[in-house]
Amino acid sequence: MSLNAIMSTATSGMMAAQTGLRVTSDNIANVNTTGYVRKTVSQSNLLSNGMGVGVSIDAIKRATDAFLQSASLNAASESGRASIVASTLNSAQQLFGDPSGSTSFFTVLDDVYAAFSSAQDDPSSSLLRTQALTRLDDFLSESSRITASLSKLGKDADTRIAADVGRVNDLLSQIDALNTDITRAKVAGADATGAENVQSKLVDELSTLMNVQISPRTLGGIVVRSTEGLNLAGDGAAKVTYQTSATATGFLTVQLANGSDYPVPLNISSGEIRGLMDVRNIELVNLSDQLGEFTSRATEEINRAANAASSVPAPTSLTGRDTGLDAQAAMTGFTGKTTIALTNASGVIQRRIDIDFTAGTMTVNGAAGPAFTPANFITQLNTALGGQGAAGFSNGALSINGVGGLGVAIADDATTPSNKAGKGFSHYFGLNDIVRTSGYSPYETGLTAADPHGFTAGEMTIRLTDVEGGRIRDIPFTPPVGGTMQNMLDALNSRASGVGLYGQFSMNARGQISFTSNTNTPVTMSIVADSTERGAGGPSASQLFGIGPAERSTRGEKFFLNTAMDQNPKLLPFAKLDLTQAVGGAAALAIGDGRGALALANAGENTATFGVAGSAASVTMTVARYAADFGGSIARKAATAESRKDAAAAVSSEVDSQRQSEEGVNLDEELINLTTYQQAFNASARLIQATKDMFDVLTGILG
């Protein structure tokens, strides 16, 4: 080997050792830098004609582990999702209060029953009546407050999703831009690890927001893909958009950098954004829906007891709720018997109309009265009232008034009570309700498949969403002109123009419509917009039947006290009409009668059928039992979410620890490398010095 070859070989060794020393010093300097991945020197033997002629530095690489990196990214995504769900459900649980405490939402309802029980002991006490109304108003106010707060949590989630999506777009742009710097450095044979470390930190942050897949590019850098393989960054940055809606399920779309001109759905299964979408589209909506169902049924049972009773003296006017129906539809379907009595100030019956809905006949003061049909019921009732009272039907509500100071009291027959959709005549129309609502919950219209649907205008847009939260399609629906409820259901369930490919709408025996997803392709349904009207200016289909989460999840804030009773507590129905008393005989309504108050106090023990609400199945149980189960389920959900958060955080921490152990800087190893490279440098330097000495000897010989 020539002296020049020896000099070249020694020089390459010294330069390799110098590079190793620089890399090692950089590692040592960044021992405490978060996200720094230690660097290693990749070198190989230089050959010339099969002979070793030194060493070559092939590349300076980051000591990454693809498996651990993937596991770390996935764990971070799942931890981000679990953390959001846990914190939101914890906030939701706090809104209801501690179920075992004295100030929880469910305890407030117990106070309502206790107040009615106290009033039963002294029905004429104005103080006890006022206290009962105050307790009931507290319960309704709490329901409204919690519903509004849950809605605000949903809106906050919307805001955070939008902010996170904006950050995702920034990260994708930065990751994509760094690919250019990394590729340029790789091609030039320069050290690209600095840019790669920055890019890695950006990917780590991205994974906390949404789960992604990472793969290396041939010329350096990475490609970022979604779970279904959409190219988000690497060959151009994609743009993610959050498609939000005030009434329907929100979803993500992405505009690919080198794809279609139209955005495509983006499905993610974990990450902070997924957690926010879960609580916004599912968890909070389910809680609000179940709260609305609970409040609806609790007030329904209070109103059931109230409509079976009367104040003393009876009120001179009874005006019901807006049923959302026309008079004929509202009167169709009743069976059994009820009695309308007009009483004087002393509670003596002055006129009595016994109505047999099954037979379609009326009896006036014990004598045969007019027959009727649903179409002419109001007219025939006015005939039976004989000028001592008047009945009317306007804007979906029935009203009955006494004339000349006469009061109106209603009671069902003891053996064959009137019934429609599980309610008596007065209860169905809400003639003597203590609690009113500006909505239509619990959406039991009493309509049958053979009844005209009555919708004359407008269109409803139905959104179907898959289990990953991605939109499947929006389906516009226009009720068929004329036709029955069955025709409307058939149109909704059409496989060509309706939801038939994904599920179906059905109507139960009480006239309530619900949607059921196909079991093989589970989907969720929501309403984007609904301009349909039943009759002129009537309710939309989603309002009347409670279709979609937006309508159902807001009903808890629509309840309020009957204004007349709130202003005049004497109108509280604490007595019951005695149907054994003859017209003009003894008083049928007596001061001091507390049977109505007792029924109100026992309303919590009434068995009611609670419909499917949120994640809760339909059950039949008492209001008090449902309250206990509901309160327990809220606590269980929050505890389960907290447990999942802790488990996900533990997994993420363990994977990060393993990744750090593999990729992080170990001072002991670096000090060994430092010594090794230092000795290699010194050895190469000595070899160069020896070569120089040999050159000097040769020069001296020749000189």
Calculate Rg over CA atoms. 39 Å
Strand order of the largest sheet: 13-12-11-10-16
- Characterize the largest beta sheet: strand count, sense, and whether it forms a barrel: 5 strands, antiparallel
Alpha-carbon distance between the two ends = 23 Å
Overall form: elongated
Low-confidence stretches: none
The overall average pLDDT, rounded, is 91
Structural class: alpha+beta
Number of helices: 16
Number of strands: 27
Helix content: 40-55%
Question: How do the strands and helices of this protein lay out in sequence?
Answer:
Elements: H1 3-29, E1 39-48, E2 51-62, H2 66-96, H3 105-121, H4 126-188, H5 193-209, E3 213-216, E4 222-225, E5 231-233, E6 239-243, E7 251-255, E8 264-265, H6 272-307, E9 317-319, H7 327-331, E10 337-343, E11 349-356, E12 361-364, E13 367-371, H8 377-385, E14 389-394, E15 397-402, E16 407-412, H9 425-429, E17 435-437, E18 455-457, E19 460-466, E20 471-477, H10 485-492, E21 503-507, E22 513-517, E23 523-530, E24 533-534, H11 541-545, H12 549-552, E25 559-561, H13 563-567, H14 595-601, E26 607-610, E27 619-622, H15 623-663, H16 667-702
Helix pairs in contact: 1-16, 2-4, 2-5, 2-6, 2-15, 3-4, 3-14, 4-5, 4-6, 6-14, 6-15
